[in-house]
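Annotators were shown the component list below and the corresponding predicted structure, then asked to write short factual statements about the assembly.
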Amino acid sequence: MSQLTNPHLNQVVNQHEQDAKDLTRTLPASRKVYVQGSRADIRVPFREISLTDTPTGLAQDGVEKNPPILVYDTSGVYTDPDVQIDLNQGLPKLREQWIVERDDTEILDGLTSAFGKARLNDIRTQGIRFAHISKPRRAKQGKNVTQLHYAKQGIITPEMEYIAIRENGRQADGVDLRQHQGQNFGAKMVREITPEFVRQEVASGRAIIPSNINHPESEPMIIGRNFLVKINANIGNSALGSSIDEEVAKMTWATRWGADTIMDLSTGKNIHETREWIIRNSPVPIGTVPIYQALEKVGGVAEDLTWEIFKDTLIEQAEQGVDYFTIHAGVLLRYVPMTANRLTGIVSRGGSIMAQWCLAHHKENFLYEHFDEICEIAKAYDVAFSLGDGLRPGSIQDANDEAQFSELITLGELTKRAWEHDVQVMIEGPGHVPMHMIKENMEMQLTHCHEAPFYTLGPLTTDIAPGYDHITSAIGAAMIGWYGTAMLCYVTPKEHLGLPNKKDVKDGIITYKIAAHAADLAKGHPLAQVRDNALSKARFEFRWEDQFNLALDPDTARAMHDETMPKEAHKSAHFCSMCGPKFCSMKITQNVREYAKGMDEMKEKFKEEGSRLYRAI
Amino acid sequence: MSQLTNPHLNQVVNQHEQDAKDLTRTLPASRKVYVQGSRADIRVPFREISLTDTPTGLAQDGVEKNPPILVYDTSGVYTDPDVQIDLNQGLPKLREQWIVERDDTEILDGLTSAFGKARLNDIRTQGIRFAHISKPRRAKQGKNVTQLHYAKQGIITPEMEYIAIRENGRQADGVDLRQHQGQNFGAKMVREITPEFVRQEVASGRAIIPSNINHPESEPMIIGRNFLVKINANIGNSALGSSIDEEVAKMTWATRWGADTIMDLSTGKNIHETREWIIRNSPVPIGTVPIYQALEKVGGVAEDLTWEIFKDTLIEQAEQGVDYFTIHAGVLLRYVPMTANRLTGIVSRGGSIMAQWCLAHHKENFLYEHFDEICEIAKAYDVAFSLGDGLRPGSIQDANDEAQFSELITLGELTKRAWEHDVQVMIEGPGHVPMHMIKENMEMQLTHCHEAPFYTLGPLTTDIAPGYDHITSAIGAAMIGWYGTAMLCYVTPKEHLGLPNKKDVKDGIITYKIAAHAADLAKGHPLAQVRDNALSKARFEFRWEDQFNLALDPDTARAMHDETMPKEAHKSAHFCSMCGPKFCSMKITQNVREYAKGMDEMKEKFKEEGSRLYRAI
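Structure shown to annotators:
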C-alpha cells in the first residue's frame, strides 16, 4: 500500500517519529546539570538555562553578564545527552542502592499477586510485555519501609537529602528578592530547605515522598505545602482507544513539560502491561486508582467487586512499583443518599463504583472495612495513599455540600489510621467550586485531615466553558495552591469532552505549571521569583531569545513571535511588533533612568556645593 | 496570476470570505430575542438558547421540558436575521431618537477638529473613507449631556432602563439558586436591577454608561461593580500591519464572542478612517487612547506633543463617536523618577509617552495641567474617562510600588475633578501582580478613587509564561473581578510577543468571559449561576448537544467531542469517551436516586405505620 493511499497509517508513522524525536530533545539554551549531595550517588538534576549578555556600553567589555538560571527539572535522564535511552530497557535504577543499604527489604522469588502471575504466564501478553521485569522487592517480615517510618525514627534518607537539594536549587545565593514574602496562610516558607527540615515535614505527615521500593527509577520528590507546589498529569487508555506506545509517549511528554507525578488511569486493554512499561520508564512517581483495574477484572460490574480481587490488585500494582494509590475508602454507605438531591450526583468514577457496590450489597464500603489490611500492604512497599474524594462536587451548584464534607471528615479519620501504620497520606479534593468557596475547602481539609497534604483537581470555578476547562480550573488551582494545596491535578482542554491528545496534555501541563508557579509566588517561596525576574529583565532589555528560553514553553513563545516578526534580525531588535520601530516605551525608560541618575547627581552636586559653602563661611 | 501561484492572495481572499460568513452567523440552537421596555424603541437583545427535553419515562409524555436559557448578548444586530447588514451603511442608530428628545444637543455644520476636516478634504483618503459620515452632534451651549449629569438630576434615561432590563435578563423568575449568595466584598448584589437602581449607581459615580452622542449605534451597557463584570477587547493596527477591513472584522468577531467594549488602539496608517469604520459598525462602546494618535501626528516624537494637537485629537475623536478616552493625566513629573529603580521601568505606552514629554520639557504633564479643559470637551459629547495607569507595573517585581500607588492617588484627585464636571470616570489598573498583592490593589483603588469603577488589565500573576498570558492574567482577572473590578481588559496569548490574529482574539475573549463569569458567581450575582446549572444538568443527563450549545464556545466544545467520538449517534449516547460504554458514574447516580427515594418511602411507610400503630393503641 503506497503512502498516499493510506493517510491514517502515515499519520501513525509520523506520530511515532515525532514521539521518538520528542523523547530526548533538549529545550533551547538548556543543559542538564547535577548538584551533588553528601554522597556520590546523590546527584540532583536541574535544567540550566544560559542567558546572553546585556550590552551596556559601560562595563569594561561593554556588557553585563546575566548568570544562567537553574530550574527544577522533572524530565529525567531523557534530556541528559550522556545517558543512552532505551525504552525497552527502562531507566537506570537511581534509588536501588539506597533501598538495598537500608537492609529491610528482600527480593521475592516472583510476583505474589495471582493476577500478576497469570499475566506473566499468559502467552498472549508476550508480544506486549516489557522484556526485563525484575523480581519484586518487599519489606522483610515485620519491617516497615515507608519514608514516614524512617522520618519518625529520625533517619534522614538519601531521598530526603536529594529533595532538600532539589527544592533549594542553587539560586538562593545572592539573589535579591525585594518582595519574596508572600502571604502563606500559615505555611512555613523557610529560606533554605535542609534535609532535616524535609525529614520533619515527612515525620509530621505534612509532606509525603511517594517512593515505592519497586520503582527505584524515580527521582525523589516531595508533596507538601511547605515546598514547591507540584502538579500531576493523568494519562491512561480507555475502552475506546490508545496503545501502550502512546501512553509511554504521553508520560515522557508530560514529564518533559513539568509533570511532577503521573497518574495512570487506564481502563482499557492490557492495563497491567501498560503500567509496567510506564513505571519502568518513568522518572517521576506513578499513581493509580486500583479500583479501576479491579472493576475491569469483574467485567465492569461494580457489585461483583470483592475485597479479595481488590487486594490482589493492590499487591499486583505494588509489586510493579506504583508509588501512590487513590483509595475511595471515605464513600460510606450513609453518605451515599446525601448525593440524591444534587444537580450532578456522584461524578467521581471511583466514588460511583463504591456507591454502587454499597447500595447493591447494602453493606459498608469494603475499602473502609479493610482499611488496616490495605495499610499493611502499603507499608510493605511504601505505597502512599491518595485518599479519594469520591463524593466531590461535579458542578458549581453541588460545591461544599454535606456529602462532600462528610466524606472529608472520614478521610481525616482514615489519615490517622494510616499514620498509625506509618503509611504516607495525601487527601484528594474537588472538583467544581466557585471562587468564594475555595478557601473553605482548604480550611476544612487542614482541620479535619490534620494537615496531611491536599491534592486537588482544579477546582473548576465555573461550569460554562467545556473546551476551556484547563482555564476554568487553573483559576481555582492557583488560588487553592496559594491557600496551601500541595499538588494540583491538571485538567486538559478535553475535560468533559474526550480523551486528551498530546497537544491537550501539553496545554494542561503548561496551564498547571502557571497555576503552581503563581501559587509559589503568592506563598512567598524564596526561589520562585528568580525566573520571573530573569525573564522580565530579558523582556525589558529586548533579549528576545532569553525571553523565549526562560518561558515555560519556549517553542510556543518563539513561534508566536515569529508570526508577526519572522526575521531573524528582529530577535535582537530593540522594538516589538506591538508599538513598531518609531516609538518604544521600554526605550523611554532608559531615558528616565538617565534623568533620575542626573537628578541624583544634581543632588550630590548641591550637597557638595552646600558643604563647600558651609566650609567657606 | 493563477490561484495556485499566489497562495498569499488566496489566503487573503479566503480570510475575507470567512469574515463575511462569520459576520452574520448565529450560534447553534440560538435565536435573537428582544425584551421590550416602557416604550416601543427600548428593545433589549438577548440570545435565547433552546434546549432539548430530558427523557424521563415518568411524566405524561415521558419527557421533562427544559426551558430555554437567555444570555446577555453583545453581538448586536449582526445575529438578528431580520436586520439587513451592510458594513458600508453602518448599524441602525438605536439611540438617536433618545438623544434628539433630550433636546440638549445640536447638529454641527461639520467637523470642528482641524485634523478631521483635513482628512475629510484629503483626496487620498477618499478610497478608504466611510461613505456616510454624519455631521457631528454636540451639546448646546451651556448644556451637559453626560449620563452622569442626567442621573444626578434624577432623570432615568432610556439608556438606564435598557441597561436595567439587560442586566436582569428574564431568568430571575422562579429560578432556584440555593447557593447564589457569593462573597461580594461590599458590592450590592440586588435581586432585581431596576432603572432607578441604575440611575443611583451612575449618579454616585460607582458605575458609568459609556455613550457618546455621536455613537448612537451602540447598545447601552454599564460598567460598575454592582453589575455583571464586563470585558474589553483591544484591537487596532500598528505600523507593522493590518487593514481597515481586518480591524472591522476583529471588532465584529470580538463582540460576537462577548466583548462588552472595544478599544481601538491603532498606531498605524489611516487611524482616523479606521476608527470611523469601526464606530459606525460597532454595537458596543468604543474606547481609545488619544495620545497614540496625537503621537502619530507629531511623527512619533513624544517631546513634540502639544496641548493644541492633543486637544484637536480629542475633538476629532469625540465627533466621530468615541465612547471613552484613556487619559494618562496621573503620570506626574515627580513620579517619573520613582520608576528608575524598577526592574521593568515604565511599560505603559501612554505612560512612557507622557514621562518622556515631562522629562524633555521638565514640565508637569500637560494632560494634568489641562484636565478641566479635557472635561469640558468630554461633557459636550458624553465621552467617559478611563484614567490611565501609566505607571502600572510591568513585572511581578514592580507590583504595588510607590510609583504605581502615587499615580493612583492622583487618579483619585482627577476623579473628583471630573465629577465636578459630571464627566463619567473609570480607573485603569495593573498589570503584573502576584496573587497575594491583588486585593490591595482593589482596596487602594476603592479608597483613593472614591468607588469609581476599576478597569484592570489582567493582572498577570506570573511573568514566566509568554504565549499563555491570557491564562496567567485570567487568574488575576477572575480574582480582582471578584474583589470588585467592574471591567477586565482582555489579554491574548500573543501578549508580549506579537499582534493577535482572529484566533488569538477569540482565545482572549473566551478566557476573559470565563474570568468575568467566575467573578460574577463568586460575587453572588443573582443570575450568574443559571447557565452553569443548565449546562451541568445537560451534562449529567447526557444531553450532549445542549451541553455544547450552552458553552461559551459551542464550536470548540463540539469539535473536541467529535475528535474522540465523531459519530452522530454518540451525541445522544449515555456515556462519554472517558469511561467508555460499560461503566458510567452518571448512570450510577440514577441508582442512588432510586435508592434514596426508596429510603424516603421506607421512612414514610414507617411513619405511617408508626402513626397507625399509635392510633391503634
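Statements collected:
1. Confidence is low (pLDDT under 50) at residues 613-617 of chain B.
2. The two ends of chain B are 103 Å apart (CA to CA).
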